[in-house]
Amino acid sequence: MSRELLDVVRRRLAEAGAEPTPARVAVALREEGRLLGDSEVLGVVGALRSEMVGSGPLEPLLAAPDVTDVLVTAPDAVWVDRGGGLERTDVRFRDAAEVRRLAQRLAAVAGRRLDDARPWVDARLPDGTRLHAVLPPVAVAGTCLSLRVLRPRAFALPELLAAGTVPPGGDRLLRALLDARLSFLVSGGTGSGKTTLLSTLLGLVGPAERIVLAEDSAELRPDHPHVVRLETRPANQEGVGRVTLRDLVRQALRMRPDRLVVGEVRGTEVTDLLAALNTGHEGGCCTVHANAACDVPARLEALGCTAGLDRAALHSQLAAGLSVVLHLVRDRAGRRRISEIHVLERDRDGFVVTVPAAIWSPEGFQEARGWGRLARLCERGGQGC
Length: 385
Ligand SMILES: Nc1ncnc2c1ncn2[C@@H]1O[C@H](COP(=O)(O)OP(=O)(O)O)[C@@H](O)[C@H]1O
Ligand SMILES: [Mg+2]
Known about the structure:
Strand order of the largest sheet: 9-8-10-11-7-12-13-14-15
Number of strands: 15
Largest sheet: 9 strands, mixed
Oligomer: single chain
Order of helices and strands: HHHHEEEHEEEHHEHEEHEHEHHEEEEH
Number of domains: 3
Helix content: 25-40%
CATH topology of the largest domain: Rossmann fold
CATH architecture of the largest domain: 3-Layer(aba) Sandwich
Distance between the termini: 67 Å
Bound molecules: adenosine-5'-diphosphate, magnesium ion
Strand content: 15-25%
CATH class of the largest domain: Alpha Beta
Radius of gyration: 24 Å
């Protein structure tokens, strides 16, 4: 089916303000002096419909069961991640305008604006897919689209073991950590599997406990009978009604959580979370973006700083409120794994540093310097260093 033909039919239908039904498409083609067979007419209908309601040329990629991310950087540069790193696909958009139209339509589906006045959008589509788009000239080379597919179910712990994310026997350690109600943090780079691991671990929480989730974008899917999900929202067109993660953490605390969970700490809510972990809300957890476990204190410091929390105060809250850091990496082969588990210690100046307690190896977690402390914490529970 030629592009030129699709363009002609699209224009005709747009002029008439009509939906692409087979009858209308056939009429439009006839008026153009084209006579096509049934299957070709249906092909045109399908292409136009997926342009209008679906995700256009990206639809087959998003529908593939193993694809987690679809990224568009140019009309002829569409990438996917099937779990083994980025691969360029042979999907092509007709031109830059088509990518822009798709981005705007998806934004509209998510109930958001995307235009010159508001040139980016970060939203969730009704099926859970996370949409991010930036229009030119902010995106210098043209509209950029990033879609993160949400798989409807959480990975179960045996699956993470089978995938090598958790080394053999590592499941016992993770269960012990949850049973002891230690507060923990999952760190790692973007796409390293933080949210997924946190979902899985929340599935290990006892059924009598109440989990309250506060998230920017509702991604966590714990397999657990008692979960309350709260999600932030941006301001409306008039600039009112914004609900921040900080608001949610505060509300969550009034909802009698047994486990307070912050999907991803990336702003001033860090102070509310730390305060909560210090005031009887042990067993809380969150994810944070950090390139190494030992960077976590500095990262939290930087976030706390934006909220006006001074360094010493942050470190004492951290020391008293958080026990363990689980750090994920994505290795060269694209495999995600818990590379290290750290415990917290105070250095001579009273600042918190992380100490490796267990290191991923193909045979199982290898004991490191902080192992004894981790074992004691798992046995006795309790936070504090
Ligand atoms: N252990 C894993 N094995 C295979 N795929 C995974 C694993 N963890 C996560 N994924 C997939 O990778 C993508 C990114 O995971 P996610 O947990 O959202 O990462 P992050 O929160 O670190 O950005 C998801 O689509 C998810 O399905
Ligand atoms: Mg995440």
